[in-house]
Amino acid sequence: MVLIGVFAALLAVFSQVAIPTPWGMPITLQTFAVALAGYCLGKWKGAAAVWIYLLLGLIGVPVFSGFGAGPAKLFGLTGGYLWSFCIMAFACGCRETVHKKWLSILLGLLGLICCHLCGSIQFAIVSGRTFFEALLLASVPYIFKDILSVIAAYGLSLPILKVLHRTEDTQVKRVT
Questions:
Q1: Does residue 95 carry a pLDDT above 60?
Q2: What is the largest CA-CA distance in the chain?
Q3: What is the CATH number of the domain that holds 141?
Q4: Which of 37, 79, 132, 168 has its CB 3.0 to 4.6 Å from that of 74, i.e. a possible disulfide?
Q5: Is 48:11 a contact under the CB 8 Å cutoff?
Q6: pTM for the complete prediction?
Q7: pLDDT at position 24, please?
Q8: Number of structural domains, the chain?
Q9: Residue 23, exposed/middle/buried by CB under 10 A (0-12, 13-18, 19+)?
């Protein structure tokens, strides 16, 4: 439970690392944090960390990029990305069942594609643009960074998982 809270907090912190853009969608490290949560915590706990982050933002805690919060963010231009982060974290978290590096990364990239599709659809609806225009404005400029983010999150998750497993083993030995 503590790790879920820690990763929700990490997502909030990484969301604040933002570079504004003229089209209203900042460049952030959110996708990195979402992928890291999924890879480190697994599908259900990783998605739970994202849900906590979203619920905090929904009730007004300024956790979204640019210290944003509230329902307007979830239903605004970038809201489709925000709520689809749960799907992405779940996809990355499938790493716990596949045990192959390339497949773990592929699942993370499929989650990323889903995130970009959902985000672009909502961006198109809210902005009154076509899906193609929304994809060009809200997805294409970020896709390379996001692909690198998923790969980097997978790579960073490996030593984190080793430490977490070592800690669990030590705690089990103390109890028995």
A1: yes
A2: 61
A3: 1.10.1760.20
A4: 79
A5: no
A6: 0.88
A7: 65
A8: 1
A9: middle
Other beta carbons within 10 Å of 97:
11
Residue 176 pLDDT greater than 70, yes or no: no
| Residue numbers of the domain that contains 152 | 2-175
* Mean pLDDT for the chain overall: 91
Q: What is the DSSP string of 61-130?
A: ---BGGGB-SHHHHTSTTHHHHHHHHHHHHHHHTHHHH--HHHHHHHHHHHHHHHHHHHHHHHHHHHT--
Residues present in the chain in total: 176
Which helix or strand (DSSP H or E) is residue 18 part of? Answer: strand 18-19
Pick 30 or 173 by higher pLDDT: 30
Where residue 51 falls among pLDDT bands split at 50, 70, 90?
A: very high
Token output for 113: 């594609």
**Phi and psi for 22 in degrees, rounded to 5?**
-65, -20
Q: Which amino acid is at 166?
A: R
